[in-house]
Specification:
The complex is a heterodimer of chains A (267) and B (271). Chain A has ten helices and no strands. The relative contact order of chain A is 0.13. In chain A, 76% of the residues lie in helices and 0% in strands. Chain B is mainly alpha-helical and 271 residues long. The chains are: A mainly alpha (267), B mainly alpha (271). Chain B: It is a multi-pass membrane protein.
């Protein structure tokens, strides 16, 4: 802070101290905005026309129609929910050995390298892109979605689990090791009790994420409520679309509430 | 840690029998739920296609490799669009989310009874709908193109930025607010000199973090018609031009890696 001259008063120091850098950043930002907005080709007539469409979507949201397509909606919801449960269970089970292998303090270097590359591969792409590939290989339907979500779960869970294991209190593992325990016993008695509460918490969190994702991968053919929503939108059936959106929001809210409560209870 | 006597010897167990039973029952319930879900999910699965998958995968790979690099020159335009969707969308999202965050924070909200629940509702609604679904809605409303993508990204970002920002606002040091108020500052001056400087680093960090996520999300918005590189992906997929799809995937991967690097650098500089 500058010493304030009595007459000039005090002025706040700027966020970026170097004036050249500061004005350079502002200038760069201005130039970018001009460049970006000038390539933005907006058909304003279409946007104006869309306002009435927007009203119809909103109207659909407030007068949701659960009945006329209830069979499709229930099937989509059933697919989404079962996909969420199975993929979370399978994904978490697979991510445990990979997470163990990706923790530098218990795994030898070659195993560590392999497991870390599996994690990187799983995290590199969006769920949607993985779903496109799995749909091409396994055909349309929730099975491809199940594989997609399981695959995405592995990267997420294994990475966080490995970081957890790397952060444990070494003293406890050391104490178990000092009793002459084997590798398995060290894992089971020295490490597992330390990471188990976090592992369960993370699985519940992932369950929540998997449901959200299951609501979109249907757009590329991988089953679930997203497919039903996509069909409803392309038929301009906004009442059904509104009903589906409301259901997605409701399930997400219930899942989030339940998972945060269970997490508090477990930890 | 219960200790029981067993044949005259002290026996230590980690849990009481009752907790042990409860835990076993929990696992059993999970297993039953899993089996049921598996059966319902696979009612309509055609296992013939699943068995066929390795052959399909090999076929796909043979078509996808080598990548058709000549396609790259037609991707620069869509890539620029994608970056614009993410950046302008994040900007718009920040502009919309900041007032919502101030309304949602317990210590800055003008009305805890009416406006705070409303702001929290906006945050929750925005977060529970994926950006691809926002894009699907907006394409139906204002037509396909970049604008739909930008608004979709912005609407999705409100929840994320709003939630993290209002938590940051609630965690500020109230004594600084008190000190500024004691000088006789107006509401606007309190905001400007006591609240804002405390949350500015968090604000910048959250914005950059969301920009990084938005780059990822904007790469696929084209699948529903909202512009960017996803549009090319859609057309290449429709033509089963897998060699082009490979090029697109590589470009997406490179873009995401660069954005991650940029956001890590900026965040390290701020914090």
């Amino acid at each position: 802070m500058r010493p304030a001259a009595p007459s000039a008063g005090w002025s706040r120091p700027p966020l970026i101290r170097n004036a050249w850098l500061r004005w350079g950043l502002y200038l760069g930002l201005g130039l970018y905005l001009i460049a970006a907005l000038s390539t933005l080709d907006v058909n304003w007539q279409r946007v104006l026309d869309g306002v009435s469409n927007g009203w119809r979507v909103l109207e659909g949201f407030f007068t949701p129609d659960f009945t006329s397509r209830s069979r499709d909606i229930w099937q989509g919801m059933e697919e989404s929910l079962t996909m969420t449960v199975t993929s979370t269970v399978v994904g978490c089970l697979i991510s445990i050995p990979i997470g163990l292998g990706a923790a530098r303090n218990i795994a030898p270097l070659p195993v560590y390298a392999v497991c870390r590359s599996i994690i990187a591969l799983s995290r590199a792409f969006q769920e949607i892109i993985i779903a496109i590939l799995f749909v091409a290989m396994f055909g349309f339907g929730p099975f491809a979605g199940f594989l997609t979500l399981s695959f995405a779960t592995i990267g997420f869970m294994a990475k966080l689990l490995a970081e957890d294991i790397e952060d444990i209190q070494e003293a406890q593992a050391e104490a178990i090791r000092a009793t002459g325990a084997s590798w398995w016993q060290v894992i089971n008695y020295g490490i597992q009790p330390q990471v188990m509460p976090r592992l369960i918490g993370l699985s519940l969190y992932r369950l929540d994420i998997n449901f959200r994702e299951s609501a979109v991968i249907g757009i590329v053919g991988a089953g679930g409520i997203g497919a039903t929503l996509n069909t409803a939108m392309s038929r301009y059936d906004y009442d059904t679309a509104g009903a589906i959106l409301l259901m997605i929001i409701a399930v997400v809210l219930v899942a989030e509430y339940a998972s945060s409560h269970l997490r508090k209870w477990v930890q | 840690m219960p200790v029981t006597t067993h044949n005259g010897q002290l026996l230590w167990q980690r849990r009481t029998p009752l907790t042990q039973w409860a835990i076993w029952f929990g696992w059993l319930a999970l297993a039953v739920l899993f089996v049921l879900s598996w059966q319902i999910m696979n009612k309509n699965t055609i296992w013939l296609f699943v068995e066929d998958a390795p052959r399909q995968a090999a076929d796909l790979l043979s078509r996808a490799w080598p990548p058709r690099w000549s396609y790259l020159e037609r991707l620069w335009g869509p890539l620029w669009d994608t970056i614009n969707i993410a950046t302008l969308g994040t900007g718009l999202g920040i502009v919309l989310a900041t007032p919502v965050a101030f309304l949602a924070a317990r210590n800055t909200t003008p009305s805890a009874a009416l406006l705070r629940p409303l702001a929290l509702l906006i945050i929750v609604a925005s977060r529970s709908i994926n950006s691809l679904i926002w894009a699907l809605l907006l394409v139906a409303i204002i037509g396909p193109g970049l604008l739909a993508g930008i608004i979709a990204i912005a609407l999705r970002s409100i929840g994320f930025i709003g939630k993290l920002l209002y938590e940051a606002i609630e965690e500020i040091d109230e004594t600084q607010v008190e000190a500024v108020r004691a000088t006789g500052a107006s509401g606007r001056q309190i905001m400007d000199y006591a609240v804002w400087p405390q949350i500015a680093p968090a604000f910048a960090g959250i914005s950059v973090f969301r920009w990084d996520i938005n780059i990822r999300e904007s790469t696929i918005l084209g699948l529903v018609g909202a512009g960017g590189i996803g549009l090319q992906l859609q057309s290449s997929l429709a033509r089963l031009a897998w060699a082009e799809v490979t090029v697109i995937f590589i470009v997406i991967l490179a873009t995401v890696a660069v954005s991650e690097w940029v956001s890590a650098k900026v965040r390290a500089a701020i914090i």
